[in-house]
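WARN no homologs supplied; continuing
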Amino acid sequence: MSRYVAAIDQGTSSSRCIVFDRDGGGVGTAQREHAQLHPQAGWVEHDPLELVANVRAVIDDAAAAAGASAADVAAVGITNQRETTVLWDRASGAPVANAIVWQDVRTAPLVDELAAGDVDRLRAITGLPLSTYFSGPKARWLLDADPSLRPRAESGEVLFGTIDSYLIWQLTGGPRGGVHVTDVTNASRTLLMDLRTLDWSQEALDLIGVPRAILPEIRSSSEVYGELRAGTALDGVPIAGVLGDQQAALFGQACFDPGDAKNTYGTGCFLLVNTGAEPVFSQQLLATVAYRLGDAPPAYALEGSIAVAGAAVQWLRDQLGIIASAADVEALAASVEDSGDVYFVPAFSGLFAPWWRSDARGAIVGLTAYTTKAHLARATLEATAWQTRDAIGAARDAGAGVRLHELRVDGGMTANELLMQFQADVLGVPVVRPRVIETTALGAAYAAGLATGVWSSTEDVRANWREARRWEPRMDAAEVERRSARWREAVERSLGWVAPAAR
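OK structure emitted
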């Protein structure tokens, strides 16, 4: 029996491949960065062909690092930046344009037109507000930008996909029999899928203006889609798992029960709470598919997207110059006992979950002559914890039956022990970091291995999960509530800063 499972992690800035053993340990890894293209202000693009070339390269490099041949690898899983959008020619495989990245805001006028004053027109179907974030409007923009594309799209000559779809199609043969599929987690981020039927919604397609003929088949997150046929060291190995990156992290953290939650701390924060077998709709959070294994019913999640977390620490470093490196923030913040009643709302371009206020801007309140750069550093870290607390509160308010017993965490900021302790304090539950921190790639590996018999059930995945560090809450509950009230007052002061005419 094959010893390993490989995972391709196609992120916003790089392509990685990690080879995992049956215990969930990494035995070989490779990574390559790709160019970030900014042809205009607010536009963010990637070259899809560069991504494919890099993926092929990291597959070979990771296999070599693990000393693994195709015979040693049971399956390959894929996890990806979810909303990035590609249109390509079915006959040649060439993209019709660069991929439009999830951060790109060029579709803002189109989204305003589609919303017609109501961004929630499709929320009851898709679980999502109309937003530049999602893939459907990006596909519509590409079709409108080149009038020759729409008739070709309607005839099936042009294909649409999120990054997972494009990679699978290219890696399974491309123009010579490539498989055109996506999984339910990525499909749920397009603004085009019905959360209940797990099929494309004709109402959403008609509103946004995307022809059904260009869309991939929606499949589960764990099944065999096709074999690698891309001239790599792992050709012949089945691709058997696909999960969007945040759902993959939830899966890699073994959050399989309703109420289980993980938070990924990076440039921003992404909280996902498993809500079980039914979608839970919220005006404050995003309803999404968590995963679907084979023919089993899907699991759903609520997602709280926080725009600025680690980015605020980078701002202290790059814009204010009060720290030399991001790692310095912890020692500086720890040099004072608390924030000195200073609160920092890092709404640099508005607030995401649970506020969703584009008119908010960054605010630092409570400054006195006593305030030092250490207090500001501490307030910066605490802002991430307060935002996470707000998102978890919104999940509870949504009627999701969320009774958080612990928060599993991953991402670069989890190395900051002061932040993790404060997070536990304000949540009133333990914060737990796993031994294997590559939870996103690991989740994709688990999905692929479950489809091919490497692991027999999610109980095997649960058994593999190991705790590395736990932070227990220590702050008095009354003190938490006092500080939380001050945080909310600070948030209120950040709102309405941008006048309607200037938005």
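The chain has two domains: 4-246, 255-434+473-503.
OK
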